[in-house]
Amino acid sequence: GQGLIAMESLRRAEAGESLTSVTKAAEHVRDRIRLLASVDTLFYLWKGGRVPRLAHAGASLLRIKPTFELYEGEIVTVARPRTTKRALSKLVELMADRVAGLKVHANVMHAASEEAATELHERVLREFDCAETYVSEFSPVMGAHIGPGLLGVAFWSEQPDR
Predict the structure, then answer these.
(1) Helix segments in 15-139, DSSP class H
(2) CA gyration radius for the chain?
(3) Pairing mode of beta strands 104-111, 130-137
(4) For the chain, give me the number of helices (H) and strands (E)?
(5) What's the Cα-to-Cα distance from 37 to each of 9, 20, 31, 146, 161, rounded to whole Å?
(6) 3-state secondary structure of 27
(7) Could you tell me which of 12, 10, 39, 35 has the C-alpha nearest to residue 155?
(8) Please, which residues have CB within 8 angstroms of residue 72's CB and are 6 or more apart in sequence?
(9) CA nearest to 39, candidates 155, 156, 138
(10) For residues 42 and 56, what is the distance between their CA atoms, to the nearest angstrom?
């Protein structure tokens, strides 16, 4: 999400806008950024002490792919699909709810899940009016704490009057 803020700021600066205008644009995007993500397993979160053993065991037994949202500093579980394919569809569905048909700027991210990231990126391109899209890897810190199989999309939507 921070990369999307930086890209918008860069666009504004290259267009010759004032520092005040660039700062306001960065704040505007910061306030609109959302991150939706799904984890393949809770094993690494359990090993790191971030989720209880019972949660890991239950999710593993039921093959649940917890899906969460990070918005305004709060992480909330938004779905519990039971397959990777359903988790991917849920990410797209939730994104559609959040952008409400507006032009979107998106970054699909993954941790050792390039194939799923490519599929998610193709769906984002197909189903949304995209101003820009990227595919990248989650940071090593995220990968170390959450493990392989993390798939997400950070995005912000433009307001209708822009």
Answers:
(1) 19-32, 43-47, 53-62, 84-99, 114-127
(2) 17
(3) parallel
(4) 7, 6
(5) 25, 33, 18, 11, 29
(6) helix
(7) 35
(8) 31
(9) 138
(10) 5
Residues 16-48: tens digit of each pLDDT? 999 999 999 999 999 999 999 988 776 666 656
* Residue 26: closest CA among 49, 3, 48: 3
**Phi and psi of 139, rounded to 5°?**
-65, 155
Can you tell me the distance from the alpha carbon of 136 to that of 102, in angstroms, rounded to the nearest whole number?
A: 23
Query: Which DSSP category does 18 fall into?
Result: -
Q: pTM for the complete prediction?
A: 0.86
Compute φ and ψ for 83, nearest 5 degrees: -140, 160
What would the pLDDT profile of 131-161 be if each residue is shown by its tens digit?
999 999 987 777 777 777 888 999 999 976 4
DSSP state of 148: T
Longest dimension (CA), the chain: 56
Amino acid at 144: A
CB of 130 within 8 A of CB of 158?
no
Burial 5-14 (b: 16+ CB within 10 A, else e): beebbeebee
For helices 2-14 and 19-32, angle between their N-to-C axes, nearest 10 degrees: 150
Q: Can you tell me the distance from the alpha carbon of 35 to that of 119, in angstroms, rounded to the nearest whole number?
A: 17
Distance (Å, whole) CA 109 – CA 149: 11
